[in-house]
């Protein structure tokens, strides 16, 4: 870990009070000059650090960073010993965590990054992951007796956990576009990517990497032009400790769904937030594209649809787009 990253971690852990250059130098066994240079580097990179003569350095009151300690102290007891890592930058948290999974990492290992260079969504589409503005996290699961088709349950559980956590912290209503897109005020603010590895021996999932990306704040320069009509953010301004609170809340809620094999309550909550039930949408499944009416979401989490000829089908995979003539958002609500 670089000196500037060590200093940032120290300031995050001590957010709310000032640390003198001498104190930081002593803790990290470096010179005060090295502390000064590292702080200047962090400030030049946009980190909001106050520097006050005779007091030292402190993150501003509105600074919002992810810290392992901040997450862990908010987790339910069953998750307190989970392995948690936070990277300043990563290629893709899903890709990196998959590597750790293949090396034997334990279930509930969590990897987060402040920025992703190659974040991705479904079908390898890029997921815009700029520095400091979002939550980019991947969670390792080792589900027992899950087939690949049943992985949709994990996505649905995660979608509900994300929505409920956002609603509590923001006071706003969220909506879900089957199966993995999270909307707020009519714009996409998050997505979920569930990737599994199937055992050749029994056809069951060996492990699953659950990726969650949330646009918490809008980038300072705004979203790229191609995303502006579609992408939104939860908040317009940064708020202290929001990231750690949101991450912990998502994990706590997801754990409750995932570890209760007999409950289907998450499906009820998912359906209540669906912005596609009762709507005509365009369904792309494999090489087939069809206009369909969404009649519901069944107990497996599959999308139930009716085709123009009246036939019905349940789909465990595929993508849907809302037809312009049947837009489901009015005044930002489904």
Short key terms for the protein model shown above:
334 residues, alpha+beta, Arc Repressor Mutant, subunit A, BirA Bifunctional Protein, domain 2, SH3 type barrels, 7-stranded mixed β-sheet, 5-stranded antiparallel β-sheet, disordered C terminus
Brief synopsis:
With 334 residues, the protein is α+β, with helices and mostly antiparallel strands. The chain has helices at 3-13, 21-28, 32-44, 68-72, 93-102, 151-170, 242-258, 265-272, and strands at residues 49-52, 56-59, 84-87, 110-113, 134-141, 174-177, 181-184, 187-198, 205-215, 280-285, 288-297, 303-307, 312-315, 319-322.
CATH superfamily of the largest domain: Bira Bifunctional Protein, Domain 2
The overall number of domains is 3
The 3D shape can be described as elongated
CA(first)-CA(last) distance: 45 Å
Main sheet overview: 7 strands, mixed
